[in-house]
Amino acid sequence: MAFQITIEDTGEQFACSETKHVLAGMQKLGKKGIPVGCRSGGCGVCKVQVLSGEYTSKKMSRDHVSAEEESEGVVLACRVFPTSDITLSVIGHLRKAVTR
Ligand code: FES
Q1: Cα 60 to middle of ligand 1, angstroms
Q2: Which top CATH class is 2-99?
Q3: How many CB atoms lie within 10 A of CB 32?
Q4: What is the rounded average pLDDT of the residues 63-69?
Q5: Domain spans of the chain?
Q6: Predicted confidence (pLDDT) per residue in 23-52, tens digit
Q7: How far is the CA of 62 from the centre of ligand 1 (A)?
Q8: What is the pLDDT of residues 76-97, one digit of tens each?
Q9: Per-residue DSSP letter, 88
């Protein structure tokens, strides 16, 4: 099943199934310069903040996402799998790439 992901900063939307991580879905937007690093939660380039919606997440490096950030919905897009429609905000490296 595919869920609708909305990037609040730009209003763009993309589909992402629960078996694909959000970063993979975002890449399908075809934007140039979306930083895709390790795809395994280790490099921190794909940081986003989930504003609404449900998701499951895999292990993320504490170097990139602190426990406090995680409690505020800050996650690494390559470690997050949607279980409902999601609205998110792009932060860090990703913000520059997505909003330019
Ligand atoms: S791509 Fe490296 S943490 Fe997501």
Answers
A1: 9
A2: alpha beta
A3: 6
A4: 95
A5: 2-99
A6: 999 998 887 778 888 999 999 999 999 999
A7: 13
A8: 999 999 999 999 999 988 898 8
A9: E
Q: Measure 56 CA to ligand 1 centroid, in angstroms.
A: 16
CA gap 100, 96 in Å, rounded: 6
Tokens of 67: 């426990």
CA atoms of 17 and 93, how far apart (whole Å) = 24
Q: Kindly give the number of the ligand 1 atom that is closest to the alpha carbon of 39.
A: 1
- Residue 21, token pair as written in the block: 């991580």
In the block, which residue shows the tokens 């939307």?
13
Q: Which residues line ligand 1 (CB under 6 A)?
A: 23, 36-39, 41-46, 76, 78
Q: Tell me how far apart the alpha carbons of residues 30 and 38 are, in angstroms, rounded to a whole number.
A: 18
pTM assigned to the model: 0.93
d(CA 25, CA 98): 13
